[in-house]
């Protein structure tokens, strides 16, 4: 697998920084745009092959300068679910307008472009009535899912009108090494590990019976790289997940055992405004069929690897 010049938006975030690590051995050069509103510059691999811009994806001049040089675009930058609920305009500006602008500039200035990979989200399924949920389903209930789903639509418009080489991946609750709790919007897995490391109660919103489809970061990265190269994925939408439901209570129990506690205090807290989804599991059969992709790590294996990384970081 070989990549030429790649643009990664949101490269200082959890997913972006992990993607850069995977791309480094196989890419000629990696351009990174991140405004560091939630990302961490130190998570980006140090290399002569990486050029970093601390800037917004809505900077048109910057996009016009970079696009002629790149062959692959991985668009990961976004405002997250929690931020979107308190700042709907910011969510719209970054997620929808920013996504549209990237498509526009990639089409007008990306003379060497081979693929535009957009990372969407399983959040567009809302509180799905169909489980595991296929790509044909949607239920938009939050600003975040509205802006992400709308950007998917513009991706499809560009594909159908201009044969623009776009691929959309809907990610589900990605976790693993490289996710830092210093980002206040990091996922529940890292928050649980962090609470135990600090000797604090594990915080669970609601009663903990709600489920999620947790996907290990290495499996997610493999899907991103495969989908970015395979000719069959152009113009298509794929779920990336395990199709397995795990309750938040079960997740807490697994993490308590992995950290070698027999029991540990759990603190139940009221639901937040964003806590709308009771069950989640995504159907990844389409991705498995087209790319022969399979999640290689069980949740227990992924959590164990995450804990090893945390211990190594603290050593």
Description:
The protein has 315 residues and is an alpha/beta fold. It folds into two domains: 5-174 and 214-240, NAD(P)-binding Rossmann-like Domain (Rossmann fold); 177-212 and 244-279 and 298-314, UDP-galactose 4-epimerase, domain 1, CATH 3.90.25.10. Helices cover 39% and strands 16% of the residues. The protein contains ten helices and 13 strands. It has a seven-stranded parallel β-sheet, with helices on both faces. A two-stranded parallel sheet has the order 7-10. It has a two-stranded parallel sheet with strand order 8-13. Strand 5 (115-121), helix 5 (143-162) and strand 6 form a beta-alpha-beta unit. Helix 6 (188-198) packs across helix 8. The longest helix is centred in the first third of the chain and has 22 residues, at 88-109. The radius of gyration is 19 Å and the shape is globular. It starts with a strand and ends with a helix. The mean pLDDT is 96.
Question: What's the short version?
Answer:
The protein has 2 domains: 197 residues, 3-Layer(aba) Sandwich (Rossmann fold), CATH 3.40.50; 89 residues, UDP-galactose 4-epimerase, domain 1 (Alpha-Beta Complex), CATH 3.90.25.
Summarize the helix and strand pattern as letters. EHEEHEHHEHEEHEEEHEEHEHH
* Fraction of helical residues: 25-40%
State the end-to-end CA separation.
Answer: 34 Å
State the secondary-structure class: alpha/beta
Tell how many strands the DSSP assignment holds.
Answer: 13
CATH C-level of the largest domain: Alpha Beta
pLDDT under 50 segments (min length 5)?
none
Provide mean pLDDT, rounded: 96
Question: What is the makeup of the main sheet?
Answer: 7 strands, parallel
- Label the CATH architecture of the largest domain: 3-Layer(aba) Sandwich
């Amino acid at each position: 697998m070989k990549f030429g010049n790649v643009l990664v938006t949101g490269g200082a975030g959890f997913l972006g920084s992990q993607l850069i690590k995977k791309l480094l051995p196989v890419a000629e050069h990696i351009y990174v745009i991140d405004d560091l509103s939630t990302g961490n510059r130190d998570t980006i691999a140090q290399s002569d092959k990486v050029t970093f811009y601390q800037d917004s994806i809505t900077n048109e001049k910057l996009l016009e300068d970079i696009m002629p040089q790149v062959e692959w675009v991985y668009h990961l930058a976004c405002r997250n679910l929690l931020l979107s609920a308190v700042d709907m305009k910011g969510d719209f500006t970054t997620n929808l307008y920013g996504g549209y602008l990237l498509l526009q500039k990639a089409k007008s200035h990306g003379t060497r472009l081979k693929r535009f990979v957009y990372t969407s989200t399983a959040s567009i399924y809302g509180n799905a009535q169909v489980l595991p949920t296929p790509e044909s389903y949607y239920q938009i209930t939050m600003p975040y899912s509205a802006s992400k789903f709308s950007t998917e639509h513009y991706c499809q418009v560009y594909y159908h009108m201009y044969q623009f080489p776009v691929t959309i991946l809907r990610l589900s609750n990605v976790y693993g090494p490289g996710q830092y709790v210093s980002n206040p919007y990091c996922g529940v897995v890292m928050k649980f590990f962090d609470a135990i490391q600090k000797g604090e109660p594990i915080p669970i919103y609601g009663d903990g019976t709600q489920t999620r489809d947790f996907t290990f970061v290495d499996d997610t990265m493999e899907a991103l790289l495969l989908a970015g190269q395979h000719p069959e994925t152009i113009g298509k939408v794929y779920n990336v997940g395990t199709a397995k439901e795990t309750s938040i209570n079960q997740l807490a129990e697994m993490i308590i055992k992995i950290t070698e506690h027999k029991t540990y205090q759990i603190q139940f807290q009221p639901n937040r405004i964003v806590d709308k989804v009771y069950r989640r599991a995504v159907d990844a059969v389409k991705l498995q069929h087209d790319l022969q992709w399979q999640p290689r790590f069980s949740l227990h294996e992924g959590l164990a690897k995450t804990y090893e990384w945390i211990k190594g970081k603290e050593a």
